Amino acid sequence: MISPFQIIVLLLIFVSIIITSLVLASKNESTFKFLIWVAIILCLPFIGSASYLIKHYTSINTKTNNVFS
Fold first, then answer.
1. Where are the bilayer-spanning segments (predicted)?
2. Is 45 helix (H, G, I), strand (E, B) or coil?
3. Which of 18, 30, 46, 63 has its CA 20 to 30 A from that of 40?
4. pTM over 0.85, yes/no
């Protein structure tokens, strides 16, 4: 059985992932794209956050690869 402490820890992790993805989106996207990402993240919190984090970290690799090429 899941204890209340485990539920609180999972909720804190979940909220921190959502906040992290929103902060990264606000810093790296234009206003219109940011609003789209906010809608996706708030409507589908786990999937939206995970997809933005994947997009963010894969686009960083392509940006840095283009600079050094």
1. 35-54
2. helix
3. 63
4. no
